[in-house]
Known about the structure:
Blueprint: H1 7-13, H2 31-42, H3 49-62, E1 66-70, H4 73-83, E2 91-95, H5 101-108, E3 112-116, H6 127-133, E4 138-141, H7 153-163, E5 166-170, E6 191-195, E7 208-212, H8 215-225, H9 246-257, H10 259-277, E8 283-284, E9 299-303, H11 312-321, H12 351-359, E10 360-363, H13 371-387
Helix pairs in contact: 2-9, 3-9, 4-5, 4-8, 10-13
The structure holds pyridoxal-5'-phosphate (PLP).
Amino acid sequence: xxxxxxPAAKDWLFRDVGKKxxxxxxxxxxxxxxxxxxxxxxGWLCQGPKVAEFEEQFAQTMQxxxxxxxxxxxxxxxxxxxxxxxxxxxxVIAPNMTFISSATAAMVLGARPVLCDITLTDYCLDTERLAxxxxxxxxxxxxxxxxxxxxxxxxxxxxxxxxxxxILEDAAEAHLARYRDDKFSGTxxxxxxxxxTPTKPMxxxxxxxxxxxxxxxxxxxxxxxxxxxxxxxxxDLLGFNYRLNEVAAAVGICQLGKLHKIxxxxxxxxxxxxxxxxxxxxILVPWRRSLEDINFQLYTVRFQLNKLDATRDQLADExxxxxxxxxxxxxxxxxQRVFAECGPFTxxxxxxxxxxxxxxxxxxxxxxxxxxxxxxxxxxxxKVVRSHRKSRT
Length: 393
Ligand SMILES: Cc1ncc(COP(=O)(O)O)c(C=O)c1O
């Protein structure tokens, strides 16, 4: 791959290139290029039989009635909210620490995102705070299964039932994670979404999937993703072109076939990191309800900064010098300028997101990460952290 020409694009797109261990790397064998080539040779490239096959297999894998493929995970959020009937003036509650589109999808429909603090255990919605944010204008809750850890759904289901709210699960990162060893993430609320960008456990390059057991919502989503066209050029409602293409679907089918294996490999790597950091109490490893309830889309540690004489950014910079790519997934949303009109939001309401923002760091974890690479990362992190340890008390 040749480097892009502008320095800005280079910084953004290729910031991990040249690192000894990148943050993520897609995992392909010969099947994906062969499947993509077959589609190209067939001459049928826009949504068609491969998308239908991908949807059917995805629904089967997730044990859900409907799967609707769309062009990416953010569009999946937007289409789902529109299908749920979200309109200007409505309020939609989302966590304050997540990828931006979990919250901005509602804004695209003219609704107001209401940001809710996270817990410092699972880094998902704090359900006590959530209850206090519900108003007569609240129409939906968007629980995000951060890092592939299924959020604590029962209190959210209870609140939604009590107040007549919809639940759109943002399972963009949570492929095959379960909730309390039972249903899959994304299939617990009214509707759920997945993303297939290259950092996710399975990828189609760009791509997304909506899942639901509700026939009406599924019909609405199918209409919305294709201009609201219910026949040939019969436009019944406002939709747009949100379709997935056939090449992406063909790649998705190959990736889906390996998904169970992929998640098993991620869990194995997460346990290896856990073991490496077990004796270093300045490093807090990711909490999990059970191994089945998390897929380790990310392996995010937090540092007990009171035990160290360095900030998280200093630690990340020193890791970068050792060739290890890391990132803060994600900063607090409430300070982002895009939400200026949606507040007022004040730091006082988000102590946990702010603590997370100060102390969290996601380490490289991906299917093809070798044990050699991983052990290098663990050794580098331990070296950096131990060089900043205050004397033990
Ligand atoms: C939690 C979460 N929500 C939404 C998205 C958006 O998905 P996409 O990048 O496919 O638009 C992502 C992925 O980037 C994500 O991690």
